[in-house]
Amino acid sequence: MVRVRFAPSPTGPLHIGGLRTALFNYLFSRKNNGKFILRIEDTDQQRYVPGAEQYIIDSLNWVGLKYDEGPDVGGDFGPYRQSERLDIYKKYVQQLIDNGWAYYAFDTPEELEQMRQRLREQKSPVQLYNHLTRGDMKNSFTLPEHEVKQLIEKGTPYVIRFNMPANQEIVVYDIIRGEVKVNSDTLDDKILFKSDGFPTYHLANIVDDHLMQISHVIRGEEWLPSLPLHWLLYKAFGWEPPKFAHLPLILKPTGKGKLSKRDGDKMGFPVYPLDWKDPNTGEIIRGYREWGYLPEAVVNILALLGWNPGTDQEIFTIDELIEQFSLERVQKHGARFDPEKAKWFNQQHLKRKSDDELLELFMPILENQGIKAERDYVKRVIQLLKERVEFIEDFWTKGSYFFERPKDYDPKAAKKAWKQNTSEIMLELKDFLSQIQDFSSKNLEEQLKNWVEQKQLSFSKVFTPLRLAIQGNTAGPHLFDMLELLGKQEVLIRIDNAIKHFSQSGK
Ligand code: GLU
Q1: Residues within 6 Å of ligand 1 by CB
Q2: Confidence (pTM)
Q3: Which one-letter DSSP state was computed for residue 504?
Q4: Best mutation site among 9, 172, 214 for ligand 1 pocket (most ligand atoms within 8 Å of CB)
Q5: Residue 219 Cα, ligand 1 centroid: separation in angstroms?
Q6: Which one-letter DSSP state was computed for residue 155?
Q7: Are 314 and 304 contacting, i.e. CB atoms less than 8 angstroms apart?
Q8: What are the φ and ψ backbone dihedral angles of 335, each rounded to 5 degrees?
Q9: Do residues 86 and 197 make contact, with C-beta atoms less than 8 angstroms apart?
Q10: 32, 58, 327, 439 from 322: Cα distances, Å
Q11: Are the beta carbons of 250 and 334 closer than 8 angstroms?
Q12: Closest Cα partner for 104 from 42, 28, 175, 157?
């Protein structure tokens, strides 16, 4: 039975790297008819950020990664919030103490620093709390048992450390990376538990993965260095470890270094799925959703950051991803995030949506702009602009002229389009248009082209300023379709307005 989990810590907004981890877990579980579990790892009280858990849940819901078990949906292996499982960890850390895999340590921060300083002076390449140093420290190896007991009873702060074995070759298998070999002398006696009653990530993570019967641990590369310790913890408990797969880093657009929030700020792209309001500063950081990305597109973008289907296919629905996904096709090396490509994916998914779906998405934006428009009319606008937009908002930014007259004219476009005699030509054109009865795109195109030829003018001399008058700029959908949709009366008014505007501005 495949059981996988997404185990975020609520220490801030979920980064798209985290969402990709969730996605790969989800795809793997669905592909293998398994279960996908959400577990909130909130044992680090210092780094706990209110609102972060809800943000994680909202983000997963937004992209449609439905989990089978989790803090808000329940399940047979709960609770799914680590802060509600403290007694469990206490019991298991005691087991490690009893069988010699863990021990109490009472060293103060100053004493720890002195130890490191001593090692630096001795030119030791590493300064670790391990079998070489623990004999000189204040712990249950060096102190008599009754003293340890006394210290604990007195409420002296302590930690429980893992008893890392000396000079052991640890070999762990990772599905994506193959064999990972580490000598235990490079590792330290990691803290498993603190006297405040909270376990550290390492202990809680292993205990929960075991108790929740997780079959595959799929997580980010940043956890690879912890893998040997986790492996030993399974051994220490006498438990069968799950299989491991560490996903590659998501790299900056330059390909150098890990993608950070700052890259997003600098280059103008989102790194969080949803808007995040910083609880301290009140600053709002824009998310993919508010930016105008479709959840389908975000899923597609994330899927290809580190995984590839082995074919040329780039556009995927979630069902296609489930069908084709395998951990074997996840790469080891970092995956570069390309903001331009991200927009392209959104455009491709927008194009695949039906006009009615797009209508539902666009109507609220229009309402926000204070525009009241007939649904049929809006749908026709959508049809005209569909090929040209990357985001739903673009229907407004690129097509507001379908709903209101241009308030001004793009100066650069105007300079090129509106020449000395343009106003005159437009006046004549207006006369001509006012006599046309059949204002269909096809008829307009035929008649206007004939008119231009008869007048021995060029198309651009007539159609570019006409477009400018209608839209306020000179790039847009098929001119005659646009005229048809706006209708004769509106077209004539706009030509008139432009003539007035440019005669006042001196042309
Ligand atoms: N709580 C860890 C995190 O925030 C989970 C790591 C893991 O999946 O083991 O990334």
Answers
A1: 7-9, 41, 201, 205, 219, 223
A2: 0.89
A3: H
A4: 9
A5: 7
A6: T
A7: yes
A8: -110, 120
A9: yes
A10: 9, 22, 12, 49
A11: yes
A12: 157
**Are 14 and 56 in contact, with CB atoms under 8 Å apart?**
yes
Judge whether 449 counts as a catalytic residue. no
Helix axes 422-435, 488-504, angle to 10 degrees: 160
| β-pairing verdict for 159-162 and 191-194 | antiparallel
Whether the Cβ atoms of residue 47 and residue 166 lie closer than 8 Å to each other: no
Q: Which is catalytic among the residues 194, 243, 258, 261?
A: 261
Q: 5 CA to middle of ligand 1, Å?
A: 10
- Count of residues making up the chain: 507
Give the separation between CA 398 and CA 420, rounded to whole angstroms: 28
The closest residue, in CA terms, to atom 3 on ligand 1 is: 8
Structure tokens at 137: 């420290």
**How far apart, in whole angstroms, are the C-alpha atoms of residue 228 and residue 213?**
20
- Asked if 65 and 26 count as a contact pair (C-beta separation under 8 A), the reply is yes
The answer to whether 242 and 217 have CB atoms below 8 angstroms apart is yes
CA of 237 to the centre of ligand 1 (A): 20
Give me the percent of the chain exceeding a pLDDT of 90: 91
Tokens representing residue 26 in the block: 């989800």
User: Mind listing the domains of the chain with CATH numbers?
Assistant: 3-71+203-251 (3.40.50.620), 87-193 (3.90.800.10), 405-507 (1.10.10.350)
pLDDT over 70 percentage in the chain: 99
Contact 429, 487 (CB under 8 A): no
pLDDT at 506: 57
State the DSSP code for 394.
Answer: H
Q: Which of 185-189, 290-294, 479-483 has the lowest mean pLDDT?
A: 290-294
CB atoms within 10 A of CB 187: 21
Rg of the chain, C-alpha, whole Å:
32
* Contact predicate 180/224, CB 8 Å: yes
Band (121; pLDDT cuts 50, 70, 90):
very high
DSSP 8-state secondary structure symbol assigned to residue 212: T
SS3 content of the chain, % helix, strand, coil (to 5): 50, 10, 40
Among 49, 200, 223, residue to substitute to test ligand 1 (most atoms within 8 Å of Cβ) = 223
Question: In the prediction, which pLDDT does 280 show?
Answer: 86
Query: Would you call 311 helix, strand, or coil by DSSP?
Result: coil
